[in-house]
Design a protein that fits this description.
OB fold (Dihydrolipoamide Acetyltransferase, E2P), five-stranded mixed barrel, 111 residues, 13% helix
Length: 111
């Protein structure tokens, strides 16, 4: 009986060990946070659910949901943009996609 308990405890102890994996993510982004504002670059994406809407995804994959509509010339899936956004973390939306933001400025850039 003691042998069984010892084997179980050894197995349990070994399964609880964690290994350290070094952080190899050296990706840099040019997103800068300034208080409740974000300045950066990313791309416009079209999401075909909840009636369809455009969003912004930065280079790290962070999603932003614009509360104010984008200008018509920016409503193109995949175009690169630079932006200044105001974060609205307390706002609830029906799409449940990305961080709600108000667009302060946004413009198309060439990549």
């Amino acid at each position: 009986m003691r042998l069984i308990v010892l084997i179980l405890l050894t197995t349990l102890g070994a399964s609880c060990q964690t290994s350290h994996v070094p952080d190899t993510n050296t990706e840099t982004t040019d997103t800068e946070k300034m208080g409740n504002q974000i300045r950066g670059t990313g791309k416009i994406v079209w999401n075909n659910f909840e009636g369809g809407f455009f969003g912004i995804v930065d280079q790290a994959g962070t999603r932003y949901y614009p509360l104010n509509p984008l200008d018509e010339e920016l409503q193109v899936d995949g175009i690169a943009v630079s932006y200044v956004l105001s974060l609205k973390p307390g706002v609830m939306t029906t799409v449940m996609w990305g961080m709600p933001v108000s667009v302060i400025s946004i413009e198309k850039i060439n990549r």
